[in-house]
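Two proteins were folded this term; both appear here.
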Amino acid sequence: MTASAKALDTVVGAFVAELARAGVRHVCACPGSRSTPLAIKLAQHPDIKLWMHLDERSAAYFGLGLAKAARQPVALLATSGTATANFLPAVVEAFLARVPLVVLTADRPHELRDVGAAQTINQVRLYGEHVKWFVDLPEPEIGLTSEHVRMVRTLAGRAVGTALAEPAGPVHLNWPFREPLIPEAQLTATPAVWGARAGGRPYVDVSIGRLAPSPDLVSTLTGQLAHSERGLIVCGPQDDPELPAAVARLAQRLGYPILADPLSGVRRGPHDRSLVVDAYDAFLRHVNTVDQLAPQVVLRFGAMPTSKPVMQYVQRYASARQIVVDPGGWREPTGLASDVLHVDPHLLCVALAERLTDPADADWARTWLEINTVTRQAIERQLDGQSELFEGKIFANTALPAVLPDGALLYAGNSMPVRDLDTFLPAAAGSLRCLSNRGANGIDGVVSSALGASAAGVGPVVLVIGDVSFYHDLNGLLAVRKYGLDLVVVLVNNDGGGIFSFLPQVDLPNDDFETLFGTPHGLDFRPFVEGYGGRFVRVADWLSFQSAVSDGRERGGLYVVEVPTERARNVVLHRQIWSAVAEALNSAVSAPAR
């Protein structure tokens, strides 16, 4: 073997070994020549699972879903050129959703940059401000020094540590390689050990602590909240499994209701849910109800909730004290926050609950809960009276949740599915983990994200997705057959962009609306699904829907259950729900909460 091959073996092998020691267990990669050194060493490492994909965009979203579901850092690998650019959508989503990804891009050597060399683009800071950290590594050279090996080991540890540190997110390492691209250890499959720490320890062990609130902050905030009887806790999308029980205990101490987004983990689960409000998206549309729910303080955890009525409610009471709890970054789009607390939400909830000893007045919370009960009952009565397939009813207890086992993972597509999940999924004791790509709220890559979640092995996964989003990521379905994954897909097919029928654009002349926004495609998805080795069932009623979902879970593999709906009719059915809720609230007798 040549000296160059030896250099690749030593340097790249040391880097890959450190990725594994730092905690990377999964790498999503695509084929390519320039990335050969990294691909070979990653494939050879006994502690790393390499997931090969043919499409870079699908690979990146697969890694995103895997990292979200497993709550672990995942690495991506692409060869040079436009392959690297196809990672961008998933990198953006990971940055905004705080998902730890280690993005590895191979590159041409420095002398081939900006001279018209084939398959060469400017990859330096390719992802701009959508990564937490970027480094352009030097090429592995003949005549290695120990300093070079120490550098790549340190960079690997730093990359994983930076991706995991609050706020979590993607990092980008760009690595140019010269030919030959085959490391010496191709035949021996022995990871490089030069410069490694003894006992399998990382070369640099990055410790990531939780940001505990100071005693002074806890003391001051306890006194202030104890004297604010009309308080509210809003839990938006977040995925700390410890937060639901802690925030529920704090709510009990304060007597505050909890507006629990389904992506918060607070709406469903074995923790105390006695103060969880789950129908806010419906009753906060009712002006008279909103008028009697003026808060003194709003305590917010996680990202902004999915519900637009919640945002409007917060803006309606802009004079209320609004406290945003976020361990890092800035997720406060309203511009109304009076306090931003960069502390760990779980630790803050625990500390406050321990200091609050006197029982809180229950009148304020009782008003919210009574309104919630009236609303939920009105929704259920309306749904029970509908035999036709309605997109919102998919998430009602009598439909999809009824056939999902405890511990299932529900991945919701953007546009209408995640909004209907928010509106129609009731609180319950069963453990149902809900995920969605709500960083950038895009419809691309959702199939691959759900398959990545399936690859994490954390429970049976069901994806609810719209037809346009499904079409966007058909390439991702190849992973099902390649890796023997299981995924039940509930495909809501209204032949176009259903969400636009709820927006002002719907008032355009019909031809303009359909061309620009409705975008009907007329696709039959059966041949696509069957081409990837999956099963496809188009249902006509709710009994066949539940039967198909149950059958899909039992059979395994790819199983697509298509729910055909009509866009204009879907709007009518949603509005009938809002009308039924308004009528019920108008009829309810409740004392003002002012």
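Next, the second protein.
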Amino acid sequence: MTNKINQLRLEIESHNRAYYVNDDPKISDYDYDKLMQDLIKQENLHPELITLDSPTQRVGGTPSEGFEKVTHERPKLSLGNAFSPEDLRDFDKRVRQTCPDATYVVEYKFDGLTVVLNYENGIFVQGATRGDGIVGENVTNNLKTVKTIPLRLKDTATLEVRGEVFMAKKAFEDLNQRQLLENKSVFANPRNAAAGALRKLDPKLTALRPLDIFVFNLETPENLDAKVQTHTQALNHLKELGFKTSQVNAFSNIEDIIDYTRVMAVDRRKLGFEIDGLVIKVDDLNQRETLGNTSKSPRWAIAYKFSPEQVETTLKGITIQVGRTGALTPVAELEPVTLAGSVIARATLHNQDHIRNKDIRIGDRVVIQKAGDVIPEVDHAVTEKRNGTEIAFQMPKTCPVCGEPTVRNDGEAVTRCVNIECPAQVFQKLVHFTSRDAMNIEGLGPGVMRLIIDQKLVANPVDIYHLAKQKDVLITLEKLGEKSVQKLLDAIEESKNRELSRVIYGLGIPLVGANGSKILAERFKSMEALSHAEIEDLNVIFDIGEKVATEIVAFFKTPKNIEIIKGLQEVGLNMLQESKIVSNNLQNKTFVLTGTLPTLDRREAKTMIEAHGGKVLGSVSKKADYLLAGAEPGSKQTKALELGVTVIDESQFLDIINNADI
């Protein structure tokens, strides 16, 4: 019986590959369904023989309560961007300074959702989203529904690959047609439809969406034999194993690549899937190792972004959105039009100056585009098509939500509502606080947030952590029942364990993003220390400029903000940064950083120093033990030599890191 089941599995997977990967079906749908039914029947008779790689498991499993977090073994870096031929030439110059004989491969930059697939002994064991590059979400069961992902490889390889899950244009159109026939709302674009499908808690719902994948990188090249020395060879190897791999084109010089970008900017519309650019990579894997990475992106690859597509439509009106900082943003209300695969009915107009400088008026025919192929914006008005009925726009003198006066400070382009209790601001701040990059409270999205605000159950972040006292009221609200309320309360309780950087980000300090919050958490180690920081303490931090420093200090001098932080601490939120000490090799040693290091950036070096027990100072003084100097060290090196501070280069620094005897 085992042999029969195995034979059925091999035959079905062979037909899956022929149909979904090679686009070359070998049998009819009827015959395929008969094979699948036969396998299901045999496995029902012998459930002890069901395995993870069986084709029947592609739509198996029960709905998840929520997605587990997955910490990637290797950081999944994002790519630097190029927007012009000159950007590509600069990239080429940087590469050739280290690898003068480098050759490149160019592949499509797919407009989908990046995932990481792990195989052990040839079996697909885990699939996760990229997330923030460090932590993603376990979506293994959902990925099993993607027919082009092999559940078993053609050998017993243990490896990790990265790919892009997407939805083909035709499949997307068919999906929206079905939505219309079922009186359901249509999806805005293929990317949103694919990303939403992959995050369904029930794999059976994911299976209803026509998802596909292109695998574009082998994350574990050390597992290959010596014959595989290039990215091209690695992709060929992955294709032999059963993956659907991305198309690559080889180039020896950057000018030919620039010519190719011009061709593909037009020809991309002929593809059966959406791309928003091209990815240029050094082909040789050893040269990649030599070039290395920055803290954010590899030095051996870059993404070339296509210029945004444009389309003309009518500006029917302008409405105002009030953000969490009180900023009033004018929004264009448009005659719906299709742009880059999406139906666009609204687009940002940025601010009053943008509207005035471009002379955009209500009633105009306007040209819209997607900024970075993502955010719709009005580029310009078609003034020659005016008929005299167009109306000039002025920002309101009072907030359209709370009615309080608006102000525009000197030197700022933004008009603001200064009422910190404005309902629009309260709503946006709370949505931000509970968002994925902040406290990540599952089940407390904008819809539920609006419900509980309207019921006056919450007015600030602290109130969220007292919702358990209002359980009986929550159960009575529309779209909420006892089970969903309990899940929500559990998620709120669980969020108390979030790391300090997420709490900082959730507070919504102006100009401080998720990455800046991580820097502040690593630097100050506690909310208490951060709240007492002065501008000079913040200015010495790499990536924290004077304007950001001023906003941080002002935030922590506002009594209302301090009150909220105190309340969050009282309900049990984490206000301390976890120690990431690897060793005490640098205990009681202090460093100052200057210049450009060969392979490390300053943040990487700083993180390494602190992980080994050392400290980093912002300026040279007699307190410093070492000056870690790179190219163009400037005045810090001169001062270090005057004070007798030991000057070391990156190579010496790495020796010190790895040896306690210093």
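Residues 2-21 form the longest helix (20 residues). The mean pLDDT is 86. These notes refer to the second protein only.
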